Amino acid sequence: MACSSGRVTIQLVDEEAGVGAGGLQLFRGQSYEAIRAACLDSGILFRDPYFPAGPDALGYDQLGPDSEKAKDVKWMRPHEFCAEPKFIYEDMSRTDVCQGSLGNCWFLAAAASLTLYPRLLRRVVPPGQDFQHGYAGVFHFQLWQFGCWVDVVVDDRLPVREGKLMFVRSEQRNEFWAPLLEKAYAKLHGSYEVMRGGHMNEAFVDFTGGVGEVLYLRQNSVGLFSALRHALAKESLVGATALSDRGEYRTEEGLVKGHAYSVTGTHKVFLGFTKVRLLRLRNPWGRVEWTGAWSDSCPRWDALPTECRDALLVKKEDGEFWMELRDFLLHFDTVQICSLSPEVLGPRPEGGGWHVHTFQGRWVRGFNSGGSQPSAETFWTNPQFRLTLLEPDEEEDEDEEGPWGGWGASGAWGPARGGRTPKCTVLLSLTQRNRRRLRAKGLTYLTVGFHVFQIPEELLGLWDSPRSRALLPRLLRADRSPLSARRDVSRRCRLRPGHYLVVPSTAHAGDEADFTLRVFSERRHTAVEIDDVISADLQALQGPYLPLELDLEQLFKELAGEEEELNASQLQALLSIALEPASVHTPGEIGLRTCEQLLQCFGHGQSLALHHFQRLWGHLLEWQAIFHKFDEDASGTMNSFELRLALNAAGFHLNNQLTQALTSRYRDSRLRVDFERFVSCVAQLTCIFCHCSQHLDGGEGVICLTHRQWMEAATFS
Predict the structure, then answer these.
(1) Which position among 105, 424, 595, 687 bears the catalytic label?
(2) Which CATH number fits domain 353-391+422-437+444-530: 2.40.30.10, 2.60.120.380, 2.40.160.60, 3.30.1490.190?
(3) Known catalytic residue: 201?
(4) pTM value?
């Protein structure tokens, strides 16, 4: 093939193109309708093989098989310990969710909030399920997981101790939708115990696919009451937490510190000429209520008109109570609000579309887990996303504006407007994927966050691939999220129209996790991951065809003998001599396995003729020079973070996914790549691209491969 200045480009395609990522997925491939039909046909009740009723389903530590709490637990179907069980008794309400012995108040407070909005609840708890007509011991629920809805099937065997449900129960003792929903969530994450401890927003997001935000309360929180009122009106889910540094404990006023509450309503009342702002909260325990001002037994209610008092006050030990805003600010530390996603809210009434982008990624040690400090040498390796904001927000009249900000047309929290400079509101949400299910292995949520940098117009044309990452120190930071050890970290940014760079990161370089980044706006925007196309320079594939020095050619002939071709061991012996003078800083030698690979890439497969070796030698000298350039400390290794740039220098450009796979394969435990590993990596890429170029007209152009075909080509045993 003649040398050319063209390129070979490989386009990866999905084997199942046309299957929408946002479509409903069946967890473990289990179909509720198919299972139910099969059980009814055979006359048996469903027993779930993927979440069998037993010790492992309970937990691994405090609920582990040998724990005291797991003793004497029986797994029973509702009709075995309850007369006339019902899936739903009359209707679903917030009093259906009462906490048991599992420390998952965060989940139950969210479920109680969900019951306020039947439309949302029907998505999570599909209708048409019961213990009478067509009962087969199987139920199903739908939960949002990192970009798609997942249908989770469970059997109805529940953990019972001393004749009572161990965990969540309904105030109506013969109602079971809540315990079965709790079981579906436990199955999705591996066990009941992994649900111990969490934040309401995590469950809020899983129930709606919305975006959760945390408000850290201040005593002087102007605009907060208005924000909560608008949030509830827009069907946002709202909760509050009274933080504690010593676990859950009850205060003299009847509140539980370290506990999650649902915020279920707001109301303004007047005592004479004084306006009082009231919040309605609910303890998911279904008991233990606030005993201060405006509690159920407070005499202040007597000063209200009878009609108003009867509409608001329910004197019942059901865990629900009213309290004044100023008392709320004294006793609670955070408010958690989940704004509904565009998918749930549906089309905007005025016909304008929603603008959403979702990206799936992963931080990998030694590749793109660069830490959160922009001044660090590795920060530039973090994943990067370019965001372009095109249209400023429309001006709106705002009610009770203050430091907290107000609510836009979406019902989503936004900071206060300042001045008349046109601004764009964009909501960024970063989610760690699948970390809760890893708790049984001792892992917890990482501390994560993101930076937002503004890209000046003069640099915009350079920002087309990861090669431009060296420009990061020249960018001005426009915003940033807090660093938080929560699953979901979100921030609503108010930015001028223009171009921005979003850089999600872990707090510490080297931490590994999967993540989902979502970008929301009601005005038009574009968002793309900064990435390379998969391509190679044809001239780099061809390589320099260098005439061999006389002594090297003579050495080749001596080792090759009468066969006039080298096998792998002979090539290894030749390279150990020939490369040594030019590689004083490269310890060790090219191994036998790598030599076998070089024969596959540059020879006949089992041997290497002289003209093949000439081409290989030109490549090796070029690769050696590139390697020494990135081996800055002359240690014989280069940092694995630099592998991408070294491959670029060798003429190869790969996307993030493939570079990540190669980095994981060729780095050592100290995040280093030695010369032999680098040679093996570049040789394999050369072989793949040369093979692809043979199928293209003129040797250059675009060839399509599936992800599986690429990985089969790039991975050898």
Answers:
(1) 105
(2) 2.60.120.380
(3) no
(4) 0.81
